[in-house]
Structure to design on (338 residues):
């Protein structure tokens, strides 16, 4: 079930992206929990299937689909978040190994992961977007240190990862050596499309909960609140149409393209407004913990609100996505660069 779109020779079902999205929607509609294996099944797995060698596919894809191995992403760095091409983590070749030095941050589930896929600089003399490669690196080795980060919602799913002489085999480069930028962009396309499209179903359930909350608190009769609830409902319908457009591009071309940027801007900002409306409806009761007098789980509303603050930042900050949408969808002039 995790590998509906994966090649059958590696344990998948070859049903394509459409079947994968339907399955993800069904999981979301049933309230299935977030999968720890999502970095493997939705991101690096499809990337290895597209760019990897036959040996890499045989080695990694079956374990990803059986959830035997947990992956994490080594992309963002201090000073290289949305400007991902500025990464400074380096990998130098020594004999049959790559030696890595540097730091990654905001590494989701890094403290649980067995492997990390790392965007690093393999040619320091090349221009900014050149000389980058994606390496597959085992986490359980002396040169890798993981430090969890406690976020504003008191969770610790993010980590810092430090490489100090960490190593991996020379044949564990995904795609071409020094050609990692194109591979990274394809991987982020998977993240912004197949990994986030099912959010719509989760948001459907969240909006239904909000309507119940408005009724329980008596705010449903407030005309201002009713207008905001109507706007939220309309926004969810717009999101659904955006998702259909993104999915159509994905099924036709194999990549979501710039439509993924439009979808990401829209759903992240819509969800932040929805979470703000939750706390507005709860009013002073939203400061209570964990339940209001009406039996509403205020802590859940608070937790979702706090987590939503990061949604316009992760998977590429919305400012970057606006540049992408402006230049590649609307055909506007490119942003001036020094």
């Amino acid at each position: 079930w995790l590998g509906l779109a994966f090649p059958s020779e590696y344990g998948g079902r070859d049903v394509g992206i459409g079947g994968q999205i339907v399955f993800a929607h069904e999981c979301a509609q049933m309230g299935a929990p977030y999968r720890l294996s999502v970095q493997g099944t939705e991101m690096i797995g499809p990337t290895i299937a597209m760019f990897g060698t036959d040996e890499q596919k045989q080695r990694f894809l079956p374990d990803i689909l059986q959830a035997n191995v947990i992956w994490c992403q080594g992309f963002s760095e201090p000073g290289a978040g949305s400007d991902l091409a500025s990464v400074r983590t380096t990998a130098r070749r020594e004999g049959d190994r790559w030696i890595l030095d540097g730091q990654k941050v905001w590494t989701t589930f890094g403290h649980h992961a067995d492997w990390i896929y790392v965007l690093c600089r393999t040619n320091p003399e090349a221009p900014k977007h050149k000389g980058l490669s994606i390496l597959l690196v085992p986490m359980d080795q002396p040169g890798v240190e993981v430090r969890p980060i406690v976020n504003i919602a008191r969770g610790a799913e993010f980590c810092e990862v430090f490489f100090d002489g960490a190593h991996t085999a020379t044949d564990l480069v995904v795609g071409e050596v020094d050609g990692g930028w194109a591979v990274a962009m394809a991987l982020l396309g998977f993240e912004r499309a197949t990994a986030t499209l099912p959010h719509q179903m989760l948001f459907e359930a969240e909006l239904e909960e909000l309507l119940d909350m408005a009724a329980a608190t008596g705010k449903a009769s407030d005309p201002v609140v009713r207008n905001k609830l109507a706007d939220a409902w309309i926004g969810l319908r717009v999101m659904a149409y955006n998702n259909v457009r993104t999915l159509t591009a994905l099924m036709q071309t194999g990549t979501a393209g710039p439509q993924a940027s439009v979808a990401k801007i829209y759903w992240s900002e819509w969800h932040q407004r929805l979470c703000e409306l939750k706390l507005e409806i709860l009013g002073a009761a939203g400061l209570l913990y964990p339940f209001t007098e009406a039996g509403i789980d205020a802590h859940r509303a608070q937790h979702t609100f706090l987590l939503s603050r990061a949604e316009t930042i992760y998977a590429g900050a919305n400012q970057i996505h606006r540049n992408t949408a402006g230049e590649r969808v609307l055909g506007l002039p490119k942003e001036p660069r020094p």
User: Anything to note?
Assistant: The chain is about 45% helix and 15% strand.
